[in-house]
Write a structure and sequence with these properties.
The protein has 112 residues and is an all-alpha fold. It is built from 4 helices and no strands. Helix 2 packs parallel to helix 4 (80-111) and helix 3 (44-74) runs antiparallel to helix 4 (80-111). The longest helix has 32 residues, at 80-111. The radius of gyration is 17 Å and the shape is globular.
Length: 112
């Protein structure tokens, strides 16, 4: 029963994540990256690595969204600490976006 409940919470989290414009842009970027890999003739392992990087990106985006929601709840007014928390979450997402871009570019360049 616990696994069933956990799956429901995960699905609710996925629905909440897709309400974020940043996540929708990341899905678009993932689709474009997948198309590039497909057109470049990437191997199964290369596609698997890209998929893992993309799932990590979504996981970090979900954590970043959670940080933002909690920060807004705990600190409704402006504070330097809240700004730092949000900036660091954003940095984590940005770094994984760069990792995804670098992987797709490296695989695409290698195969073309």
């Amino acid at each position: 029963m616990h696994a069933w409940d956990a799956a429901g919470y995960s699905l609710a989290g996925f629905r909440r994540l897709t309400a974020e414009s940043a996540a929708r842009l990341e899905f678009l970027g993932g689709a474009i990256g997948a198309a590039v890999l497909f057109l470049a003739g990437a191997s199964g392992v290369q596609v698997l690595v890209a998929a893992i990087l993309f799932l990590l990106l979504l996981a970090v985006e979900a954590l970043n969204t959670a940080i933002e929601v909690l920060t807004d709840r705990i600190s409704p007014g402006w504070s330097q600490e809240a700004k730092h928390a949000k900036d660091l979450g954003s940095l984590a997402v940005g770094l994984l976006i760069l990792a995804n871009l670098a992987w797709v570019a490296a695989v695409g360049a290698e195969l073309v």
